[in-house]
Structures are given as structure tokens and as C-alpha cells.
Design brief:
Number of helices of chain B: 5
Radius of gyration of chain B: 16 Å
Number of domains of chain B: 2
CATH class of the largest domain in chain B: Alpha Beta
CATH class of the largest domain in chain A: Alpha Beta
Strand content of chain A: 25-35%
CATH superfamily of the largest domain in chain B: VC0802-like
Structural class of chain B: alpha+beta
Radius of gyration of chain A: 23 Å
CATH architecture of the largest domain in chain B: 2-Layer Sandwich
Structural class of chain A: alpha/beta
Helix content of chain B: 25-40%
CATH architecture of the largest domain in chain A: 3-Layer(aba) Sandwich
Distance between the termini of chain A: 41 Å
Number of domains of chain A: 2
Strand content of chain B: 35-45%
Oligomer: heterodimer
Number of helices of chain A: 12
CATH topology of the largest domain in chain A: Rossmann fold
Distance between the termini of chain B: 18 Å
CATH superfamily of the largest domain in chain A: ANL, N-terminal domain
Largest interface: A-B, 19 and 22 residues
CATH topology of the largest domain in chain B: VC0802-like
Shape of chain A: globular
Largest sheet of chain A: 9 strands, mixed
Order of helices and strands of chain B: EHEEHEHEEHEH
Strand order of the largest sheet of chain A: 4-3-5-6-7-8-9-14-13
Chain lengths: 436, 142
């Protein structure tokens, strides 16, 4: 069958002036709709701004930023712009310390999300003839249900394998003739390791052609390694639960920057200190405004992700802007195995143990292409002479940390005063992972 | 009938033991026996010394993670089989030894150990007539 190169030709082939005209129209509509949100209504009143004041895309700058703290302060439903009865799903961030964040979706939001991500997958060459296996966690993690619905929307046979159990994943890949897998980069490498152990040659014994990776920082070298190991093309993607999830930006076949769908989002790159816009091509914090969303539009949301716009046209012909792979964060959030973790979450768990002093050190390392976290904690007093009790303390700390941050860290007890300090202030995070 | 032992949490790193030993030296405290048990990441150094209570305060004040615990110390004749005999007595009563170290002093074998049931061990040692060392005997040993 002869397929079109586009999933949604009308929107994918807009030129710059069309994109901007559409954005203004959608922005005005979104801002007016936001007046149904108690949060935005109050905020606009405070600065005496009316939806009618937004007359050009430049006027976007008159709208204050929205932050993760705003989401926490209005937890759970305070930003919503529609009544709850119109919402059909929510996704919530991990964590129990402080308030987590909640994102609400109407049925239309879910449809549009599936359309956007289906568009991404089509763009890298996936078609209804493909068999798609989603090795991402389901549940609250948006990489699960997000890819599921989008792959079904595209029309692929979809295998909701979910995370873990690598041998079972490989059985699915070989038995069902899986051609495309979505996984975090470190898990892609793990799949290969287990293939080697089991004597599976990915080129000979599987039909894999495509890997969709993202949600975890990785370098160009890591991508090339995954491609070489598995004999596939691997495409990087960007998404965040605040913006639905995966499907915000995706690489095209050029593999040089991720097209951000500008019929869904207005992207700004600002200096994280001055919050003033930077020139195209310069690195800054990405700020996103949703312009195609009902339940919970977010205006000028500070993503805290650092990236840049790649200047110039893309040879693929799409004029939607391209963002570069993420260069880091403008806050202290850690992204590990696709999970977002703030050091404060770890701190608050450790504070519950009276056996521990206040200092701790989080180390992120890559071992066997697997990213891991270890947490060094200081023992304040030796409360026992018994190794068994020290080990059960370590186990208990590990368990409670896992409950909070959803990944299992390696916990090490160290004597008080032995953790490094810099200029009197404790160093909390050491990132030795191999990317950027 | 038990004696005080210092337990010190130490990192598996060169110099950490020396720091502890220097603190004890500066306080004029003599060591009678010591032992280090280690895991991959850390160790516990166990020390029998003169004036354990004072040694404990000295280390604690210096910020060392230290605990004072009670252990049994049994004196045995220096002949083959005596240790087996003593441990056999405890074992028959179903008492587990969590750790043990031993040394020779003035021609006598000394076993230092901790059990999982101190009460039962106490009675068993008394009823079996084993020679034990008490806290007050420690100063004579140095």
C-alpha cells in the first residue's frame, strides 16, 4: 500500500506565516478559555490583563509565567479550565512529599494527544504494517498510555509489554515480529545485553527497524551505540506530563533536532535568570504555552529544561521549529530512568531516620549502560554493634526511598562528617553519568 | 560478668582507623584486644581497652560514631580442646554466637564474644562453671 509521508498533511506542512497566524488565533482562544480557571482568572485580574489585550504573538510576553510550584499550590484541580465532570483522565507526578502535580484531560485532549504522537511516529516511518511494542511503564507514567493510544490511532498492532521482565520482552519481540519499540535509552541497551546472553542476534532473529527513545537524558554517542547494537534507527523525543506527555517534540528522519508541534505549543527559549528571550540558536530554558488543550491549558509554563532552537530550515520540509536535545536543567531536578526526582524528596525521607545525620550525597553513575543512583547517608551515632541491624537499616532506607522516588537507589552508610562539603554548603548531587 | 567493648563504625578508607587509634593514644588509653569486621562498604572496629567508659566519651566528643556494648569474656587454660568445650556448652543450650575473637594473655586463652541471648548465656556460663572476666578485672589485665 502507498502511504502518504504525512500523518496529518494539513498541519505538518504549514509554512511559517500560516503557523504564526494559527498560533495567534489559538492563543487568543486559549487565553479566553483560561478565564474559566480560578487560578488564571485571579492572576489576570491581579495584573489587570484582559484576554482582549492579546493582539499579537508578541503580547504573549505580557502573560506571567506558570511554574511547577503553581501546579503544586493549586493541587489537585485548581488550574482546570473546565468542570471536573468534563474530564476523563488524570495523570499525576510521582512523590508523596509536598504536593504532587496533577494534569487533567478531557476526551478531546486525549484524542489530540494521540493524534500528535501518532504524527510523530508516522514521521519516523512507522505505518499500520508495523508491530509496536511499548516497553514503558504504564499507570501514571505518561509514556505508557500515551504511546498505547497513539500507536493504536496510527493503526499499528500494539503490544503493551510495559516495563521490565526483559526475557519476556524479547519473547514478544521474536514471536510477534515486533518492528518498533519504545523504551528509555538505558533499557534499549539492556535489551541488547540480554539478547546476547540468550544468543539472539537482533539483525537475524528479529524484525526490529525502529527504536523510539526519550524521557532520559542521553548523548548522540549513546544513540549511535543503540542503533549499532540493535541494527535499528533510534529517534529521540521530548515530552513532559505537564504538556500531556510524549509527543510534544520528535525527531524526523533527519535525526537532527526535534520538531516541536507548533499547532499545539508556542515555544519560547528564555534566559533562566533574567527570563528574557534569547536569540534563536542560544541555549536557555524552554517555556511552553499549550494552545490546543481544553481541560488544563498552561500559559508560559517554565519547563526548567535547557535547550536551544536549531536555526534554519529542516531538509524534511516541515517548518515546525526544531529543539536540540536537552542540555540539562535550570533547577535541581534529576531525571533517572525517565523518572523525575527532586533531591528534596530524598532529603525528606532521610530526615525520618533518627539514626542518620543531616548530610547526604546522591551520586548518579552509568554502569553497564545502566544509569544508577546511589545515596550516601551519614550515620549519626552507632546505635548498635550488630551488622544485621545496620543492614536492616540500609534496607529500610532503601525501601522508603523507593516508595518515594520510584527507583531503587543503592544506599551506603558512611560515618558522620565524611561527606564532601564545598564552601560550607553540602554538595548534594554528583552526576557522573555519560551524556551531554 | 560481662565487659564493656567499644564498637566503632569506620569507613573502608585508609586513615580512618588511625584517627581512632590516635584519639585513644592522646587520652592515654591502652588497648587489650581489637578486631575489625568488614562489609564491602564499611567496617565495625571492636576494641577492649582500659577505661572503656572514658574512651567512649573521648571518641564521642571527637564526633566518631561509637557504641559501648557488653560482651562476654571467658578465660580458658591454654590446652587443645578448651575452646571447643566452652563453645559446646553454649551450643548445647541453643545459644548463637554473633561474633567472637580470641587472644592469649599471660598464658591464658581469652574468648570474647556476643550472643543472641545474653540472659541465657549468662546463666549457662555460671552453671557450667566457666571462668569469666568481669569489668573490674580489666585494669589488671593491662
Amino acid at each position: 500500500m502507498n502511504y502518504s509521508p504525512y500523518f496529518n498533511k494539513k498541519y505538518e506542512t504549514l509554512d511559517r506565516s500560516q503557523i504564526e497566524a494559527l498560533q495567534l488565533e489559538r492563543l487568543q482562544r486559549t487565553v479566553a478559555h483560561c478565564m474559566n480557571s480560578p487560578f488564571y482568572k485571579k492572576r489576570f485580574e491581579e495584573i489587570k490583563l484582559c484576554p482582549e489585550d492579546i493582539q499579537s504573538l508578541d503580547d504573549l510576553k505580557r502573560i506571567p509565567f506558570t511554574t511547577k510550584q503553581d501546579l503544586r499550590d493549586t493541587y489537585p484541580f485548581g488550574i482546570a479550565s473546565v468542570p471536573l465532570e468534563r474530564c476523563v483522565r488524570l495523570h499525576s507526578s510521582s512523590g508523596t512529599t509536598g504536593n504532587p502535580t496533577v494534569i487533567l484531560h478531557t476526551q478531546k485532549d486525549l484524542d489530540e494527544w494521540a493524534n500528535a504522537l501518532a504524527r510523530c511516529m508516522w514521521m519516523v516511518g512507522l505505518r499500520p504494517t508495523d508491530v509496536f511494542q511499548n516497553s514503558s511503564g504504564y499507570g501514571m507514567f505518561t509514556g505508557g498510555l500515551g504511546f498505547q493510544y497513539a500507536a493504536e490511532r496510527l493503526g499499528m498492532l500494539t503490544v503493551p509489554a510495559a516495563a521490565g521482565n526483559t526475557k519476556r520482552q524479547l519473547k514478544f519481540i521474536t514471536d510477534f515480529g515486533t518492528t518498533a519499540v519504545h523504551a528509555i535509552p538505558s533499557y534499549a541497551a539492556r535489551l541488547y545485553e540480554v539478547m546476547v546472553e540468550m544468543g539472539i542476534d537482533p539483525r537475524r532473529d528479529t524484525k526490529l527497524t525502529t527504536l523510539l527513545i526519550g524521557a532520559e537524558p542521553h548523548s548522540e554517542e549513546q544513540r549511535r551505540r543503540i542503533e549499532e547494537m540493535l541494527g535499528v534507527k533510534a529517534y529521540n523525543s521530548f515530552g513532559m506530563s505537564e504538556m500531556c506527555g510524549p509527543g510534544v517534540a520528535f525527531e524526523c528522519k533527519e535525526q537532527n533536532g526535534m520538531h516541536i508541534w507548533e499547532d499545539y505549543y508556542i515555544v519560547e527559549i528564555v534566559d533562566p535568570q533574567t527570563l528574557e528571550p534569547v536569540q534563536d540558536g542560544e541555549v536557555g530554558e524552554m517555556v511552553l504555552t499549550t494552545i490546543n488543550r481544553e481541560a488544563m491549558p498552561l500559559l508560559r509554563y517554565r519547563t526548567r529544561d535547557l535547550t536551544r532552537i536549531i536555526p534554519g530550515p529542516c531538509p524534511c520540509g516541515r517548518e515546525h521549529k526544531r529543539i536540540d536535545r536537552m542540555k540539562g536543567r535550570s533547577d535541581d531536578m534529576i531525571i533517572l530512568k525517565g523518572v523525575n526526582i527532586f533531591p528534596i524528596q530524598i532529603e525528606q525521607v532521610l530526615l525520618q531516620f533518627k539514626e542518620l545525620a543531616t548530610d547526604y550525597l546522591i551520586t548518579l553513575e552509568t554502569s553497564d549502560s545502566n544509569d544508577e543512583m546511589s545515596v550516601d547517608v551519614e550515620l549519626s551515632q552507632l546505635f548498635t554493634d550488630d551488622f544485621g541491624r545496620l543492614q536492616s537499616l540500609t534496607r529500610e532506607i532503601t525501601r522508603r526511598l523507593k516508595d518515594e522516588i520510584l527507583v531503587t537507589p543503592r544506599v551506603r552508610l558512611v560515618p558522620k562528617g565524611s561527606l564532601p562539603k564545598s564552601e560550607g554548603k553540602a554538595v548534594r548531587v554528583k552526576d557522573l553519568r555519560k551524556h551531554f | 560478668m560481662t565487659i564493656s567493648q567499644l564498637s566503632i563504625f569506620i569507613e573502608n578508607k585508609s586513615g580512618t582507623l588511625l584517627q581512632v587509634l590516635n584519639l585513644l593514644k592522646d587520652a592515654q588509653i591502652s588497648l587489650i584486644a581489637s578486631n575489625i569486621a568488614d562489609t564491602v562498604e564499611y567496617g565495625i572496629c571492636r576494641i577492649i581497652c582500659s577505661e572503656p567508659a572514658r574512651a567512649y566519651s573521648v571518641l564521642k566528643e571527637a564526633g566518631v560514631a561509637v557504641a559501648l556494648s557488653d560482651v562476654f569474656a571467658i578465660e580458658l587454660d591454654n590446652e587443645p580442646g578448651r575452646a571447643a568445650e566452652a563453645i559446646g556448652v553454649l551450643s548445647k543450650e541453643g545459644i548463637n554466637i554473633t561474633y567472637l575473637y580470641s587472644f592469649l594473655l599471660n598464658g591464658k586463652g581469652i574468648l570474647i564474644f556476643r550472643t543472641d541471648d545474653a540472659e541465657k548465656a549468662r546463666e549457662t556460663i555460671i552453671l557450667a562453671g566457666l571462668q569469666f572476666i568481669a569489668e573490674k578485672d580489666l585494669t589488671h589485665l593491662v
